[in-house]
Specification:
Layout lengths: L18 H55 L1 E10 L5 E10 L6 E11 L4 E12 L4 E4 L16 E12 L3
Antiparallel strand pairs: 1-2, 2-5, 3-4, 3-6
Length: about 170
């Protein structure tokens, strides 16, 4: 009797992964990586935004201090009166002299008011001086305007600067 030939030994066939496991590994690992990457980017952007916010606040404080200095040192009221105009009426004579005492080229927005003898506002002072070099001066001859009706009953005026916005000019 002969014995049938034996087959060579082979291990049991490997059980393949289920489709669900393949999908979980194929999609889950990249998804987890993307989430970690997004979280890292968000943290980095948040940190940069925080630093930028601090710099902006610092610049605003510096700018505000420069505006206050400019209001005291850079803008002078050289005339504040009522004068007769060429038509026999009356008009305001409000003149400003703006001097750039800062270290850089700058533009100025000047706001103020003209009040009468009873402290009632007659009109506003509005002036824009654009692109003034360090040490340079500019005269603003008609910084406030008023009609004859605005000046009815007004015998004396007083001018006051309320705000100066000084901004650097980039070149």
């Amino acid at each position: 009797m002969s014995t049938p030939p034996q087959q060579p030994y082979s291990p049991a066939p490997k059980q393949s992964m289920s489709t669900g496991t393949k999908i979980a590994l194929g999609c889950g690992i990249p998804a987890a990586f993307i989430l970690l990457l997004a979280a890292g980017c968000t943290a980095m952007v948040g940190s940069a935004a925080n630093e930028a916010s601090k710099e902006i606040k610092k610049d605003q404080q510096s700018s505000k201090a420069d505006d206050q200095r400019a209001a005291k040192e850079d803008v002078d009221i050289t005339s504040c009166a009522i004068r007769p105009d060429e038509f026999g009426s009356r008009e305001l004579d409000v003149k400003l002299l703006v001097t750039n005492n800062g270290k850089d080229r700058a533009s100025y927005i000047v706001e103020g008011e003209v009040v009468d003898q009873d402290s009632n506002q007659v009109t506003t002072i509005d002036a824009l001086v654009d692109d003034l070099n360090h040490g340079a001066q500019k005269k603003e001859n008609d910084a406030a305007l008023a009609t004859e009706d605005d000046l009815k009953g007004v015998t004396k005026v007083t001018c006051k600067i309320l705000d100066v916005d000084r901004s650097g000019v980039l070149r």
